Queue: 3 jobs
Job 1
Amino acid sequence: MSFQAYLDAIEVKTGRTPAALLAEAHERGYGADTRTAEIVLWLKDDHGLGRGHAMALVHVIRNGPVIGDKHVGSTGAHRDDSTVLYLQGRAHPERDAT
C-alpha cells in the first residue's frame, strides 16, 4: 500500500481528512518531539486506527507531508505518485492538480 493510500484509507475509516487529524494533533501539542506511542494510542483510542495507519499519520505529524522518493515512479505496490502527500481529502477539487 502506498503512503498516500494509507492516508486515503484513514479518511474512509474516520470520516476525517488527514489535514483535520493533523490539526487536531497540533491542538493536542503533538509534533516532532512527541513519542510515537503517545500518538498511536491517541489515534487508536479516539479514532479506531490500527498501528499501520497510525504510523502514516505519525510521520505526517512529526515530519510534515513530504516523504522520501524511494517508491515514487516505481511500479510496486508501495508506489507513490509524488514525494508530497495530499492531506486535504480524497474528494478535494485540487487533488488531481497536485
Note: The chain is about 50% helix and 0% strand.
Job 2
Amino acid sequence: MFLGQYRHALDDKGRLTVPARFRELLEAGGFVLQGFDRNLMVLTPTTFEAMTAQINQMNMVDPKARELKRLLFSTADRIEPDRNGRILLPQFLRELAGLDGEAVLVGVGDYFEIWAPAAWEAQFAQLQDAEANAQRFVGLQLSAEKA
C-alpha cells in the first residue's frame, strides 16, 4: 500500500527518485498517467489492469466514457524504476502537472500521486479544514467497522 508524503527533486532529464517504500511495490514496473487534479498518478500493473478492465466495460457510445478513456489512456506511459530507483516522467506529463525541479509524492492506497509542491500545499491545506471535510465526505459512509 502506498502511504505517506515525500518530496524529491527531478533531474534535468525528468527522472524522479521513488521512495524505497514505494519502489518495492513497483518491482514489476508500473504506469504513470494524468491525474484528475493537475497531478499525475502512478499505478502498479495490477491496479492499472483492474482500472483498464473496468473502463473497458463502459458503454463506448457514452460520450463521458469516451472522454475518460481519452484522458487516461492518451496520457499513460509504462515506467520501470532504474537501478537508482528513479522513474522517467515524460515531458508532456511534467508540463501537465506543472512539475519543475521538485515534486511531492503522495501515497493514496493502491496508487500514488505526483504533485507540483505549490499545488500539493494548496490541496493539503484544503484537506485540513475539518468542518469542510465533514460536509464533503459525509455521503461516502466511511466506517471503521470491518466489512
Note: The chain has a mean pLDDT of 94.
Job 3
Amino acid sequence: MIKHASAPSWLTDSEVQSPSVQEALDTVGLNPDQWETVVVGPPERQVTETSSPDGQVSTIKDNIIALKRLGL
C-alpha cells in the first residue's frame, strides 16, 4: 500500500494534512496478529512529473507499507 505522507514541498498551505505511517496502516483495519510487517516507512522521492505553478520541482514523502499474511 502506498499513501502520500506529505504535500509537495513547494505547497505552503498548512491545512493539508497527510497521515502518518501508523494512521495509514490503521485505515486498512487488519488484525496485526495475522500479518507480518515487511516494509513500513516514509521514503522521500523527488517528483518531476508535477511541479509548482512556477515550475519548481517538488519533494514528496510517501507511506509505503508491505505486509505478509501469516498462515492461512
Note: The first strand starts at residue 2 and ends at 4.
